[in-house]
Amino acid sequence: MKKKKIKDMPNRLRPRERSLDVGFSNISDQELLAILLRNGYREHTSIDVAISLLNKYGSIVNISKLEVDELCSIKGIGKDKAVTILAAFELSRRGISGNGEKIIIKSSKDASLVLEENLRGLSKEHFQILMLNTKNYLIGIETVSIGSLNSSIVHPRELFKTAIKKSAAAIILAHNHPSGDASPSQEDIEVTKRIKSGGNLLGIDVLDHIIIGENSYYSFKEEKIL
User: Fold this and answer.
1) Whether residue 37 sits in one domain with residue 125
2) Same domain, 44 and 65
3) Which of 33, 109, 166, 176 is in Cβ range 3.0-4.6 Å of 50 for a Cys bridge?
4) Backbone angles phi, psi at 44, to 5 degrees
5) Shortest CA distance to 172 belongs to which of 201, 148, 207?
6) Exposed, middle or buried by CB within 10 Å (0-12, 13-18, 19+), for 24?
7) Bridge partner list, 176
8) 63-106: pLDDT as tens digits
């Protein structure tokens, strides 16, 4: 059987070409992984390998926490590719935290400045959490879900599992509104209350929920909703 090659695919289906055409933030997780993998094996492309990886581990967040040997359990991924993938995740983490510099979040404004770089200008809703230690230093940012143009699906169980694994003492919820209007919807308010209740049970303080709009942000804490 002739080996499948990405270069034989139409440009509109090639991950690298698509990233140049529509931007990295608008291509799928499997396409981003395929770019890092570069090639597949036998009759399987790097996209096939990326799909296998996502099918086994469920999400980019889960994959980012794997060890080299776990990545190598996927056919088509050897140690070199595994190291490349994990190095990319580590660069992302360092980039978010300012190359290792400590960031302290003292106010909603401080949080919004961190979030604007990640969330402003995206075409879909991205729901993230900022995780803080007992002294309010930022210890991590995780994307919990990516929704449609006007809604995102948030699973509190996955959200708090990430916070617990990071030993976070508190979290700040955040998402963007692609419409540009930072005003909260009724769904935003209900989700916030549900997550706040879950945090109370787990001993993780939900400090704020910040919505990033086009040229503004909305803070539940500042508006005394939270």
Assistant:
1) no
2) yes
3) 33
4) -110, 135
5) 207
6) exposed
7) 212
8) 888 889 999 999 999 999 999 999 988 787 666 555 445 789 99
